[in-house]
Design brief:
The complex is a heterodimer of chains A (409) and B (374).
Chain A: H1 2-29, E1 44-52, E2 62-69, E3 75-83, E4 87-90, E5 93-95, E6 99-100, E7 105-110, E8 120-126, E9 131-136, H2 147-169, H3 172-176, H4 180-211, H5 218-244, H6 252-279, H7 286-305, H8 322-333, H9 335-345, H10 349-378, H11 380-384, H12 387-404
Antiparallel strand pairs in A: 1-2, 2-7, 3-4, 3-6, 3-8, 5-7, 8-9
Helix pairs in contact in A: 2-7, 2-8, 2-9, 4-5, 4-6, 4-7, 4-10, 4-12, 5-10, 6-7, 6-8, 6-9, 6-10, 7-8, 7-12
Chain B: H1 3-28, H2 32-42, E1 93-109, E2 112-119, E3 128-131, E4 135-142, E5 151-152, E6 172-178, E7 183-188, H3 194-199, E8 203-209, E9 218-227, E10 237-240, H4 246-249, E11 252-255, E12 259-266, E13 274-276, E14 281-285, E15 294-296, E16 306-312, E17 317-323, H5 326-330, E18 334-340, H6 355-363
Parallel strand pairs in B: 1-4, 3-8, 9-12, 11-18
Antiparallel strand pairs in B: 1-2, 4-6, 5-7, 7-8, 9-10, 12-16, 13-17, 14-15, 14-16, 17-18
Classes of the chains: A alpha+beta (409), B alpha+beta (374).
């Protein structure tokens, strides 16, 4: 037995060992292949442009470009130009080193007297003479990390994430007064809201993902995020139901928490985007946008509490404790705070794409869960397609669309 | 949920809202937008009297206008701005060999090396010089992979014009003509596509002296061109003599009172406007007159146009010489004259800088050609 097990292990490891040996040989000798690129293949991605009002003195404003080498080989930054009406060669300093290894990052400090509100372009030339440029439409001082600025971005998160969700939750007593048909409408409305959210998050993820440098494989990242969160949440939900062994499989509070989690992850991604856009000065109509998000996200509160509206009518559950509501709202809304602070001070497009995808997957999982529950309650597909349900779903989409009109970014 | 619970939650939310508003008031005191504007107003007006502010331009290593010799990044090899001395009277034949190479490494700006096409290994090619009426023989040795030519400006027979007479790879051809008239001329490859052959570096300057020569002066030859590294139709670097900022990194040393004759040629497909600071120059357009006909400090040169500028500095110090198109200047078409204190005695304004000036220049890391370097 042990011999055959050894053989099995050998057969499993042999290809790996041989591949490793082949790689070593290939690395040393190129394996007889002679590929020489006709043109230098270098790729530099701009991850962030920071405008510093002053450093060391009033005459020493700075532009700092955060870059990543996303080409196949190390690159060396040899010259820097800053474009305004035209480009101009400028002095610069690269930290930690002008030579940037593959996938490594660097900061290019440019002592340039930039002005608020003007457009600028940063151009980096490698020693092989390839220019890489990034345009900033409107320059504005990038917020620096401090307790106060952190507080400001936390407040931004509270405004666009936490407050609207809790306001939505405050509708709970009203929702409880709904009759059976009204409840069906409410659940369908929630499904509509969530589908809209999911599609919205997915499209944002695809948009940002397409801009990611090649090595980060934006679309594959989204696939992993969506599939991972859907399957993980489904598995958790199934395990919880098995343990409770509730006959009908109805666990309203669990479903509420799942929805809250999905919306929370979605809001984390949304917060990253909002905080980042604020920090980069890309949002012209700040106040209007915040108002828009407050109205838009109000609906998320309804979605969170929809499953527990009928909790009292459930088989054995008492009324849901108010602390649960606090937790639900916090789970759904508070990630926006984290997101907007991270987006402002440590923006990462990769992180934003991943969270948007995870959020989309989570939301879609919840949609399946609610739909399955409605189907069990109301007699399969024909039951799902009652007028109250169809109109509720469409109303959910319409509400999201209408409130989304405020979000003219 | 009982209504009491609901009331309790509403109360908690209310308190949270009040706390939030309070923290907002606190944070609003230093919101990013407010701070940015504050930063603007703190900057004092130029020439402000607060002594601790360094002036932003000269004397600072900030904002590009480094004081001569203070650049951190400098081109490694400088193109010699001093043309060959005029041929001695009586030398009737002037022979040159130009070896043409493709994809030779050329440092177009500090740290950036591009594959250039070169005559004798440099961009621009060497300055050719002859006296009016003398015979000029230029042998082209083509070490490239494409056919090439040399097209000279000036008066000569059709078969010496370098347009039909392609010199194949590994081939040679000797152009032979009588230099006339006197003046400043471009030479460049005229193989098709000419735009590519010229842009890649196959160009240079030829000086034809009047029969009786010109008055001896300190001489400089400055060719203006530009380089489009990514071939997007917009030049990325502009340069005096092929390397952006090379005479900013390595200033040209002159002496107070020293008479200077600068030969200038534009070989790029844009208008250029050579301009010297703190001074006026006597202008000889195309170099086809013996005496300046205009006193100015800037002249417009279209493509292939050229001129002689004659001047001398009355005050010591650093003076910029640039193309007056700001973009050209900001992308490399600028340099410094560093004018030394040494008062020249009348008649001493020779054709090369005094040995002492050369020594001083070397000590300061600047550029000055040694006497008789050719």
């Amino acid at each position: 037995m042990s011999v055959s097990r050894g053989k099995i292990w050998l057969s499993a490891l042999l290809p790996v060992v041989l591949l490793a040996a082949l790689l070593v040989v290939f690395w040393k000798t190129s394996g007889g292949l002679r590929f020489e690129a006709a043109a230098p293949v270098e790729q530099i991605a701009f991850e962030r442009i920071v405008f510093k009002p002053q450093e060391g003195g009033p005459h020493e404003k700075q532009i700092v470009a955060h870059i990543r080498n996303v080409g196949p080989e190390a690159v060396t930054i040899a010259q820097v130009q800053v474009g305004w009406l035209n480009r101009a060669s400028w002095e610069f300093r690269v930290e930690p080193s002008p030579t940037v290894e593959r996938l490594a990052t660097a900061r290019v400090h440019i002592p340039y007297p930039w002005n608020t509100g003007e457009p600028y372009e940063v151009v980096l030339f490698t020693e092989k003479g390839l220019p890489f440029s990034h345009k900033v439409e409107v320059a504005a001082a990038t917020p620096e990390f401090s307790a106060q600025s952190l507080g400001a971005y936390a407040m931004l998160g509270v405004y666009v994430g936490v407050i609207p969700v809790f306001l939505g939750i405050l509708w709970l007593p009203f929702l409880r007064s709904l009759g059976e048909r009204g409840y069906g409408f409410l659940l369908s409305l929630t499904v509509g809201l969530l589908v809209f959210l999911g599609v919205d998050a997915l499209s944002d993820a695809l948009e940002t993902g397409a801009e990611l440098p090649g090595p980060f494989q934006g679309v594959s990242l989204i696939l992993m995020g969506v599939a991972g969160s859907m399957l993980l949440l489904s598995s958790i939900s199934a395990a919880a139901k098995r343990r409770r062994a509730t006959a009908g499989g109805e666990a309203p509070l669990l479903l509420a928490y799942l929805i809250a989690f999905g919306i929370g992850v979605h809001n984390l991604g949304e917060g990253l985007a909002i905080g980042g856009a604020y920090a980069l000065g890309e949002i012209a109509t700040g106040a209007l946008l915040i108002i828009g998000f407050m109205i838009h996200n109000l609906t998320e509160g309804i979605a969170v509490v929809a499953p527990i509206v009928r909790a009292r009518a459930g088989t054995n559950s008492e009324s849901v404790a108010w602390t649960h509501l606090l937790w639900l709202g916090t789970l759904a809304g508070a990630p926006t705070i984290l997101g907007s602070a991270l987006g402002a001070f440590a923006p990462s497009p990769v992180m934003a794409v991943l969270f948007l995808a995870v959020g989309a997957g989570a939301v879609f999982q919840v949609v399946m869960e609610i739909t399955a529950q409605m189907s069990r309650r109301g007699g399969g597909i024909p039951g799902l397609l009652r007028p109250a349900h169809v109109s509720g779903f469409l109303a959910g989409l319409a509400v999201m669309y209408a409130t989304g009109l405020f979000l003219a970014v | 949920m009982r209504s009491k619970d609901w009331m309790r939650m509403a109360a908690v939310l209310g308190v949270a809202l009040i706390l939030g508003a309070a923290s907002l008031v606190w944070t609003a005191e230093e919101s990013p937008a407010v701070r940015a504007e504050a930063g603007q107003t703190e900057v004092p007006a130029a020439g402000g009297h607060s002594g601790h502010h360094r002036p932003p331009i000269k004397g600072s290593d900030r904002y590009q206008y480094s004081y001569p010799g203070e650049k951190r990044l400098a081109v490694r090899e400088v193109f010699d701005p001093v043309p060959p001395a005029p041929a001695p009277a009586g030398q009737k034949v002037h022979e040159y060999t130009l070896v043409l190479e493709e994809n030779r490494e050329h440092e177009v700006a500090a740290g950036i090396k591009i594959p250039a096409w070169t005559f004798n290994g440099t961009v621009p090619g060497p300055v050719l010089r002859a006296r009016e009426g003398d015979l000029v023989r230029v042998k082209l040795v083509n070490k490239g992979s494409l056919p090439h030519t040399i097209h000279f400006h000036g008066v000569h027979p059709a078969e010496m014009d370098g347009v039909f007479e392609m010199v194949p790879p590994e081939g040679e051809y000797t152009y032979e003509f009588v230099a006339r008239p006197y003046g400043v001329f471009p030479y460049h490859c005229h193989a098709n596509p000419s735009s590519q052959h010229i842009h890649n570096g196959l160009y240079g300057m030829m000086i034809v002296d009047p029969k009786e020569g010109r008055a001896p002066m300190r001489e400089l030859a400055m060719l203006m061109s530009a380089f489009d590294l990514d071939r997007d139709g917009e030049a990325d670097f502009y340069a005096w003599n092929g390397k952006a900022f090379q005479y900013a990194d390595h200033p040209v040393d002159l002496e107070k009172g020293e008479k200077v004759r600068m030969y200038v040629l534009n070989i790029f497909e844009e208008m250029m406007a050579p301009h010297i600071h703190g001074n006026m120059f006597g202008l000889i357009r195309s170099g086809t007159a013996k005496q300046p006909h205009e006193l100015t400090d800037v002249v417009s040169l279209g493509i292939a146009e050229r001129a002689i500028l004659e001047f001398q500095y009355d005050f010591p110090g650093a003076y910029m010489f640039q193309c007056h198109f700001s973009e050209h200047m900001e992308l490399g078409l600028m340099g410094w004259f560093r004018v030394g204190e040494k008062e020249l005695r009348a008649g001493e304004s020779g054709e090369a800088a005094p040995a002492a000036a050369v020594e001083r220049s070397r000590a300061r890391g600047g550029y000055a050609a040694a006497k008789g370097s050719r």
